[in-house]
TrEMBL record:
<feature type="compositionally biased region" description="Basic residues">
    <location>
        <begin position="1"/>
        <end position="10"/>
    </location>
</feature>
<dbReference type="InterPro" id="IPR007995">
    <property type="entry name" value="DUF742"/>
</dbReference>
<feature type="region of interest" description="Disordered">
    <location>
        <begin position="1"/>
        <end position="42"/>
    </location>
</feature>
<dbReference type="Pfam" id="PF05331">
    <property type="entry name" value="DUF742"/>
</dbReference>
<protein>
    <submittedName>
        <fullName>DUF742 domain-containing protein</fullName>
    </submittedName>
</protein>
Length: 134
């Protein structure tokens, strides 16, 4: 009698990766639409990427999660670009959200401090003369 032959196990092909947003067994998880975060798209405040946002009040209980996050993050001045990155929202959605918050006076927007393009010549001369005296 001959012993039974061992069969090699073959690696089964892996199923193709599922696209993002698909759950198990046919469930589809739809991404959250940006207009649910920002509401209606109306006039926007003239915000730039470097505009600084500062919170005026503590987050009220009626605030949305995004508004609460903005108010907590902007206890100290943060730029719109930083807020957008921390909340993982595109700039366009962030400006609409901040426009609503500016209208409700829960945050203040202020322009960043702009440095002069070229330093003052008299200041440079004063520094140069001071260094020569050393």
């Amino acid at each position: 009698m001959t012993p039974p032959q061992r069969q090699r196990r073959r690696r089964e092909p892996e199923p193709p990766p599922r696209p993002a947003g698909h759950g198990q067994e046919g469930e589809q998880k739809q991404p959250e639409r940006l207009y649910t975060i920002t509401g209606t798209d109306g006039d926007r405040a003239p915000l730039d990427l470097v505009t600084l946002i500062v919170a005026c009040v503590d987050p009220p209980s009626s605030a949305t999660p995004e508004q609460t996050a903005v108010l907590r993050l902007s206890a100290h001045p943060l730029s719109v670009a930083e807020l957008s990155a921390y909340l993982r929202l595109p700039f366009s959605a962030m400006t609409v959200l901040l426009t609503d918050m500016l209208a409700a006076e829960t945050v203040h927007a202020r322009a960043p401090i702009v440095r002069q393009q070229l330093p003052d010549r008299s200041l440079l001369e004063a520094v140069m003369h001071g260094l020569e005296r050393l």
